[in-house]
Amino acid sequence: MSDLLQGLPMPDFSVADPSSRDGIVLQGVTKSFQGRKILDNFDFTIERGETVVIIGRSGEGKSVMLKHIVRLLNPEAGNVWIDGEDITHMNTKRLFEVRKRFGMLFQGAALFDSMTICENVGLGLKEHSGLSAEEIRIRACECLAQVGLDKVEDKLPSQLSGGMKKRAGLARAIAMRPDYILYDEPTTGLDPITSDAINDLILQLQAELNVTSIVVTHDMASAFKIADRMAMLSGGRIIYAGSVDHVKKTGHPVVRQFIEGSAQGPLSVF
Ligand SMILES: Nc1ncnc2c1ncn2[C@@H]1O[C@H](COP(=O)(O)OP(=O)(O)OP(=O)(O)O)[C@@H](O)[C@H]1O
Ligand SMILES: [Mg+2]
Q1: pLDDT tens-digit readout, 231-241
Q2: Which of 64, 76, 105 to mutate to test the pocket of ligand 1 (most atoms within 8 A of CB)?
């Protein structure tokens, strides 16, 4: 455990039988890069239908954690369970089936530069849905409209602003009507009004489609608006999780410093 957390209570998120429960369970997940442990015996559970916001400092492993949920990264130890199925040792064919249930908004949108926005949004549908080209175009335009984009379907990503690209990435994430959506900094770089429209969309997807969302964000206004639960990643583990009300009132010094964005406190500035 890092010095920072000495003497602070460490919550226990291990679960007894992940194979018998719904939702996403990460258990004992450990991952290192260049000898540095990024995730260190990481335990956490995301319940079906909830929106969990993950906070934590840059470089703590939030994106790495999200990538483990869809096995874009393999853990060196531990397991990831999706609705009772261990994806860690799953064959590729089954893994692709499981991944179809996920929408993912990557940090930086990750659109294909040579494809139009419509082609980008419709990519998963083209490969997996069996819909005709015309039907895919209609669905893509509907998803673009849901994120407030109009008449951009024939443009290339390079013709869009950063915020528009982010929204197009979100349209692609929802196009397959997923059960789970992973959002990696969905509002970073967007103006406050567009950010709030994205927040509303996340809430709407949860209310209307019972989508389970995991949102990584540094945007506290957004986190407080959308989260059923917030969790803070530090030192390779979740050091704190609780409702928005709990987070706002917590006396945990590390969480307090982070949510207040203060240079004073246990977290060093550099
Ligand atoms: N594929 C990779 N190869 C080597 N190192 C990696 C790889 N992916 C992530 N890392 C390292 O793991 C650490 C955690 O990265 P990650 O991208 O998860 O941070 P983060 O919490 O998402 O930060 P930010 O808030 O800046 O996005 C960083 O030190 C990063 O350099
Ligand atoms: Mg990241």
Answers
A1: 999 999 999 99
A2: 64
